[in-house]
Structures are given as C-alpha cells and as structure tokens.
Design brief:
2 domains; two-stranded parallel ribbon; mainly alpha; 2 strands; 130 residues
C-alpha cells in the first residue's frame, strides 16, 4: 500500500488487529493525520515488532542486572500482555504491572503511582563515565 501511495490504507492495514472501535476513534481524532503523514515509518516499526516477537529474550536480556518495571495496559491489544510476560520472565529482576482500565496509551497518574512504588526505596547507583 505504501508503494502505491495509499498512506491512509497502509496505516489502517497496519492497525488491523486493534479493536475496530479504537481504529475508528483514531481516524476521527486529531492524531490520524500525523499517523498518515509518518506512514513510511511503519516499515521499520513492523520489522522491529517482527524481530521483537521472535527474539530470544532470555538470551538477550538474561544478563541485565538492573531492576526493570514491565508495564502493560489491562485492556490493551491481545499480544501486549503476552509480550510483557515474556519480557518479565526473561529479565532477572523484573516486576510486571498492569495499568487498570488502560488500553495502549499513557495514563500519567496511574503510571506515576506505579513508578513511584517501583522506585521507592531502591538504592541509586551512579556510574562515573570515562
């Protein structure tokens, strides 16, 4: 579709797996035009998502020695909870959390509470560059 110049069609096709009401809401929102304007970036995004879905998470992430908060919206698209669970399982010091009532969007108040709870009481490690 992108090769044919159908940017709106390409964006709609790319988002075909989200609930129809979410896609229709996006089309009717001020966000639609920026999505369409940047439709060419969908190629790289699709490649990144394909890689992320097939990547050996334990092998790639198992050596990370940092506390990590993996957050997913409670009402997001079906693939996201499984992806979050896979990441949390692969990371040695992961905490998984859900944002109640959230789809695939920022919820500043709820996320601030999650981050504050996650970061509260953790020691700060400062690494000198050089």
């Amino acid at each position: 579709m992108l090769d044919a110049g159908d940017r709106p069609g390409a964006v709609s096709h790319y988002m075909k797996d989200i609930p129809l009401e979410m896609l229709e809401g996006l089309r009717d929102s001020p966000l639609w035009e920026p999505f369409v304007a940047h439709a060419e970036s969908l190629r790289a995004d699709a490649q990144a998502l394909e890689w992320a879905m097939s990547a050996p998470h334990r092998e790639l992430l198992g050596a990370l020695d940092v506390p990590t908060l993996v957050v997913v919206g409670e009402e997001t698209v079906d693939e996201m909870p499984a992806a979050a669970a896979s990441l949390a399982a692969a990371l040695p010091d992961a905490t998984r959390a859900e944002v109640a009532g959230s789809q695939h969007s920022w919820q500043p108040a709820a996320m601030t509470d999650l981050l504050a709870g996650f970061l509260g009481g953790r020691p700060v490690r400062i690494h000198a560059g050089g």
